[in-house]
Amino acid sequence: MQDQYHHYIPRFLLRNFAVNNYERIFVDNERLFKQKKHKRNFRNRNNKDALLQTYDRNLSQLGFSLIAKTYGYANMYKDIDHEDAMNVEKKLSKLEEQASKVIRDIIKTSQVESQIVLLRKDLGNLRKFLFIMNYRNRSRWSQFAENRFDNLTWSMVENFMQQQKLKIAQEVWLQNIREILETPHEDVQNNLQIFSLDRTDYQLRMVDCFLVIWQAGENDEFIITSNGFGIFEGVNGSVMLSQFQFAYHWFYVISPKLALVLCHSSFRKEIGPDLLQKQFGFTRSIFEYVPHPPAIPKYVATPKEVPINEYGRSNDTNPFTAFDSHLKSIGLEKRVDDTFTFNFVKVSSATVHLVNSFLLNETKEDLVLTFLSHSYLYKTITKYYKHHKELGVVDQDFSVLKRKLFMVLNQTHEENLNLRRNIPAERSCNWNVRVLTSEL
After folding, report:
1. Roughly what angle, to the nearest 10 degrees, separates helices 138-145 and 169-182?
2. What is a single Pfam family found in this protein's UniProt entry (predicted)?
3. Within a domain: residue 204?
C-alpha cells in the first residue's frame, strides 16, 4: 500500500491561513478596489497547491510551505492488523467533515454578526473533534509509539493491552481514536474499549469545561505553531511520583481572527477562579481577566418522567450524569436540536499578543510557525520578550526569525517606495488587503 501523509492539524483549518486566500491590490480608491475586475476566486484552485507562509526553525528558513505537506507524518493512522489499514483515517475524515461545516459557519458568521447559534448535535461533533485533535497530535502519538509513560501509567497501559489483546502501545492509541470516533458523543464515557485514563479525560472535558470564542481585532492576528493546536495553559505537578496536569484553557486557533478556547468551569462567574487557588494553591491563570461568557442554552423538550426525591431534587450523585438528572428534575431534557448561543468575544490586542506569546513559549526545536503577515509576526516576536511577568521564564530564542523578518520588511518597504515613485503626482493611492472568497 502506498504511504499516505496524515495531518495532525487538518488541511481545512490550515486553508484559513493560506496565502492564496488573500491578495494585495494597489488602487486609487475604495470604489475601484471593490469592482469585480479586481476580484479573484480560488474555489477552483487545486487545494494541493495552497501555500502557507511559514518559518521553519530547523532550517532557519522564512518562506512558503505546501499545506499538503505541512503538520503531518506518513501513515500516522495506519492499522496494519486491520483488513483496511486506513480505516481510522477514513472514520476521522467523516468527523472532520462534520466539524469543518461547523467551523466554516463560525468563521463566516463572525464576519457579519456578534454571535452564533449552534445545535447541540453540531456542538457535540465540534467538542469531540477538539478532543480528538488533542489526542491525535504528534506528542501524544509519539508517547504511545515510544512508550513514554511514568511507571504507574505504563502498568495500566500494559494491563489494558493484555485485556484487549493488543501487542504494542501504539495500538492502544489507534483503538482509542477508533472507538471515540465510532461512539456517540454522549456515550463515550461508558465505552470500556477506550483506555480508562483517556475515557476519564474525555468525560472531564465534556462535564467540567465550556467553550468560548475569542475574536482578534481588525489589526491583530493569531498564529499557528507545530504543537500549538489544542495546547493547554494550566498547572503541571506530581503526586505520589505520578505526573499530573490541570488545564485552565485549551487553545484552538481556527483562523487568523478566531480561536476556540475550552475553559475550566471555574471561569464561570458563579464559581470564580479563587476557588482553585484557595483549595489547591494553584497559580492563577494568565488569562483570568479575559472575558469568559458561556453559551446560552435553549432546551426544546421536556421529559416523560421527572425523577426527583421527597425534597424535589434529583437522586443522581454521579458527577458525570448528575447534571442531566437535574435537568429532568426541573422539567428539561437534552435533545439534539437544543441550541446554544455563543458570543464572539472581541479580545484586546494585548490578549492576542499574550495568546501568541504563550504559543511561542511552548514551542519545540523543530518549530514550524504559520502566520499571515510579516509585519504582525515581527510585532508578535517583539512583544514575546516583554511577557516575562505573565509567562515566567521566556527562554525561546527567536533572534534569527526577528532578523529575517526585519530584512523582509525593509525589502518590501523599498519595493513600495519604488512603485509609488511611478504614480503620477496628481493621483493618491493606498494599499488595500482583502480576504478572497475561498473554500474553507
Report:
1. 130
2. DUF4238
3. yes
